[in-house]
């Protein structure tokens, strides 16, 4: 397994304008045999800290956040979209949030351009789940699929949940817009989307793994190789409380108890196996591994 870290300038046009900020996109690369995995920045989210920490033991949670040198009032997790190329296929895992969620996110097109790729080059899009920062970049400004040559795939349980007409009535007021946005976007690809089951291989060397709780049908994707890698999505959604206290329920999860059980079991296995991980909201490009640390775990980038 070879890892390297580099920085990409996303917009030559912006760099040519003396008054425009020069935007740099951090990317990590992981090589598994003939397969190359890059993480591309879609920007970052801006969240009130309580969105993740609410309901956790306050003093302990604040101590963990302080150890990671994070602010206590808001969190700004990165959004790492995974790009996999195997010499035949060009695959995205999730598509970022597009222009309609938060102004700090929705930057995937710039990151692709920095890699000398266009939306037409993408052959497959595999979704981990239907939350806005993972799904809402699906459509262009004309409400057509942004990646016109791609085959789209999502878990059967996840698709059924977001397209169920009862979901907006049961998901809760705070997430009602999530349901409306997911339903509208999935309707556009309803006739062509491939629906996946747990343990199914959507493509050779890629296996879907049901990791529920953050959403009902959340999928992670295991990538075969000399040292296998797991694309996490949001089943492990931060590098601080999720690692140090995976058993704590988080307000970011739709089923907090189930998500905590999924997270604890997954971290235990990943620490034992030594597999690489790629996390959508993990720092430094999101590629690394899990180590045990006291009674919990820690994220080791690289």
Structure description:
The protein is an alpha+beta fold and 302 residues long. It is built from 10 helices and 16 strands. It has an 8-stranded mixed β-sheet. It has a 6-stranded mixed β-sheet with strand order 11-12-13-14-15-16. The radius of gyration is 18 Å and the shape is globular. The N and C termini lie close together (11 Å). The N terminus is likely disordered.
Give the topology, please:
Layout: E1 2-9, H1 12-16, E2 24-32, E3 35-44, E4 47-48, H2 50-53, H3 58-67, E5 74-75, E6 78-85, E7 90-93, H4 108-114, E8 124-126, H5 132-135, E9 151-155, H6 156-163, H7 167-170, H8 176-188, E10 194-196, E11 206-210, E12 219-223, E13 229-233, H9 241-244, H10 256-273, E14 276-279, E15 287-293, E16 296-301
Parallel strand pairs: 7-8, 8-9, 9-10, 13-14
Antiparallel strand pairs: 1-2, 2-3, 3-6, 4-5, 6-7, 11-12, 12-13, 14-15, 15-16
Outline of the structure:
This protein is an alpha+beta fold and 302 residues long. It has helices spanning 12-16, 50-53, 58-67, 108-114, 132-135, 156-163, 167-170, 176-188, 241-244, 256-273; strands at residues 2-9, 24-32, 35-44, 47-48, 74-75, 78-85, 90-93, 124-126, 151-155, 194-196, 206-210, 219-223, 229-233, 276-279, 287-293, 296-301.
């Amino acid at each position: 397994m070879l890892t390297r870290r580099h920085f990409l300038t996303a917009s030559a046009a912006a760099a040519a304008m003396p008054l425009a900020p020069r935007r740099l996109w951090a990317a990590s690369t992981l090589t598994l045999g003939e397969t190359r995995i890059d993480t591309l920045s879609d920007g970052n989210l801006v969240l009130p800290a309580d969105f993740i920490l609410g309901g956790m033991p306050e003093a302990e949670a604040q101590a963990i956040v302080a150890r990671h040198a994070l602010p206590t009032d808001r969190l700004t997790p990165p959004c790492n979209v995974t790009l996999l190329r195997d010499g035949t296929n060009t695959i995205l895992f999730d598509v970022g949030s597009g222009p309609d969620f938060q102004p700090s996110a929705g930057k995937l097109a710039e990151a692709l351009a920095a890699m000398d790729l266009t939306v037409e080059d993408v052959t497959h899009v595999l979704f981990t789940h239907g939350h806005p920062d993972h799904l809402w970049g699906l459509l262009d400004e004309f409400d057509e699929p942004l990646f016109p040559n791609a085959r789209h795939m999502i878990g059967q349980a996840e698709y059924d949940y977001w397209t169920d007409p009862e979901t907006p009535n049961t998901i809760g007021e705070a997430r009602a817009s999530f349901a409306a946005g997911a339903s509208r976007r999935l309707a556009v690809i309803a006739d062509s989307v491939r629906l996946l089951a747990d343990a199914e291989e959507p493509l050779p060397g890629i296996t879907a793994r049901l990791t529920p709780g953050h959403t009902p049908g959340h999928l992670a994707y295991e990538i075969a190789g000399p040292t296998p890698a797991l694309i996490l999505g949001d089943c492990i959604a931060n590098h601080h409380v999720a690692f140090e206290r995976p058993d704590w329920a988080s307000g970011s999860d739709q089923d907090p108890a189930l998500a905590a059980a999924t997270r604890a079991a997954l971290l235990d296995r990943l620490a034992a196996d030594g597999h690489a991980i790629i996390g959508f909201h993990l720092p430094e490009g999101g590629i690394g591994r899990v180590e045990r640390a006291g009674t919990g775990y820690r994220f080791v980038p690289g």
